[in-house]
Amino acid sequence: MRTRNSLFKDLIGLALIGVFLYLFFFIDFKDLSLNIPGSWLNVNTIFLSIVIEAVPFILLGVFASALIQTFVSEETIKKFLPKNAIAAIIPAAVLGVIFPVCECAIIPVVRRLIKKGLPVHVGVVLLVGAPILNPVVVASTYYAFNGDPTILYGRFGLAFVLSIVIGFLMLLLFDNKNQLRWTKSELQGKQDPMLEQPVIQNKWKATFYHASDEFFVMGKYLIAGAFIASLFQTFLDRSILIALGQNEVLSPAVMMAFAYVLSLCSEADAFVAASFGSTFTTGSLLAFLIYGPMLDLKNTVMMFAFFRTKFVLVFMAVVTIVVFASILIFQQLVL
Question: Which 8-state DSSP code applies to residue 118?
């Protein structure tokens, strides 16, 4: 039954893609004499520009992530980390630079590592650092902001330092005590179905399977985020937008909330952030680019499923306070 439902959903998805491609290539909407308001045409223009620019980086990111998921084992990752709790924090942040794993895939990976003996706080460093520090995100951010050094170095410099700070704070608060939430199936000695991966013998076939699955998961968040951003740009009163965007205290908080709700993939969030470049401060754009990959709505749901409630609530508070405070300090010292 489950296979039949999955096949049915895949067929619907392919049919919708076919309809879209047919309309895109063979239908000239100008000939339909539709009286579409200029504001909605502007929404369409902004939306398409964000999506078209972001899709290549999502494709690159999902394939890189799928290759790591298929060919790199958790044991290999653990070999790079020292046994000492404090000494392992910085190498964990460096490891995040090497492995392009997005925030959608990092939580199950970190949970598996913790189950195999990785200290919780080291897992937290990977959790908040890897989705931002990886080379695919560096490339997408560089392209989205035309190589703006303040955004580029600010995002990755702050992310590297803050991942270490957050990991150290979680070590102080929880002292490496077990914080995993064990599922009923695990207590019965079975594999957790949420972490269970399809058994595919051919590794390249498995890579394409994971990449396609991850692409469609990310794609829906990108489309939603691009659409909401285009609506904001078009319909929100420009004076209100400017007033919010130029306030050095309020604008980072607004953009952090925006990042949390949108739950964008880190390979694509720079393009949405860049669409606000003319109205929001550099500090608030950095808040959006740093906070979103570390903590968003979809990841919160996953964390509550995998970790204890107290741990998740403290993690959310620590990440929010540390990111917001660091942005305020960065604005005063650098911008």
Answer: -
